[in-house]
């Protein structure tokens, strides 16, 4: 990761904290004005947003640290811990919301000043909508799991907030007080689903999940097109670790080929993979032709066979 990309990631992560605090303040005001348990649930989720934004900032900063003696493969996976933490916090928030919704169901409460509260809550949702787009788009470009996870969480917040605003307005117009705790429970279900998704995706990263089939095919194509002089490539293995994509393969060359010549092929393949896959870290093991498996990646370039 370049210095410029690291600075971009840190600025975006810091911006999330500021946005989260502003949105939280607006949602608290909306809840205090209305007394709506559904708007309370929205505010609770925003508390989680702020905590998650702080965790994302720390994770982005730590993951950008260079490899050292204790972590020779770098610190890329730190961002996955942030995403797992955010998922766990979402689950805790959902439990708190369910508890409040149940209390409101047992003791219905009237909603006061709904228009003012809904307008303030709508403003908070609009801010979140704009910022979640920034987080997801820039996070994907920077290959930052922490920023993308934060953006997806905000997106779920925007969706649930829209439902809350509609439902609370309907409850105020109709006088159906049961709608308020029912909507709060629906918000809790929505963020539970969001939290499960974050935990599942982040756990896959911690477990060294391979790249997608589409990415795998692209990697094979790059190797095949840039292995002129080799015989085949096999035992291709990949794994994601935050911004890094580790790519390992065995390259079979003619037995009489010099070390310099085989090394030049490896350099060519490595350079091509790094151009095609942002953050690629490539390891190539060279083998003589007797090690060919005849079912690996064929060499498409002239002179490969």
What is the fold's blueprint, element by element?
Blueprint: H1 3-34, H2 37-63, H3 78-106, H4 114-141, H5 145-174, H6 179-206, H7 213-225, E1 232-241, E2 244-253, H8 259-276, E3 280-288, E4 297-298
Helix pairs in contact: 1-2, 1-4, 2-3, 2-5, 2-6, 3-5, 3-6, 4-5, 5-6, 7-8
Brief descriptors of the model:
Alpha-Beta Plaits, elongated, 8 helices, four-stranded mixed beta sheet, 305 residues, Alpha-lytic protease prodomain-like, alpha+beta, transmembrane helix, ferrous iron transmembrane transporter activity, 2 domains, 4 strands, Cation_efflux_CTD_sf, Protein p34, cadmium ion transmembrane transporter activity
Question: What does the model show?
Answer:
The chain folds into two domains: 3-206, Cation efflux protein transmembrane domain (Alpha-lytic protease prodomain-like); 213-298, Alpha-Beta Plaits, CATH 3.30.70.1350. Strands 3-2-1-4 form a four-stranded mixed sheet, covered by helices on one side. The two termini are 37 Å apart. The protein has 305 residues and is an alpha+beta fold. The protein is 67% helix and 10% strand. The chain has helices at residues 3-34, 37-63, 78-106, 114-141, 145-174, 179-206, 213-225, 259-276, and strands at 232-241, 244-253, 280-288, 297-298. The model has no long low-confidence stretch (mean pLDDT 79). The protein is elongated. The protein is built from eight helices and four strands, in the order αααααααββαββ.
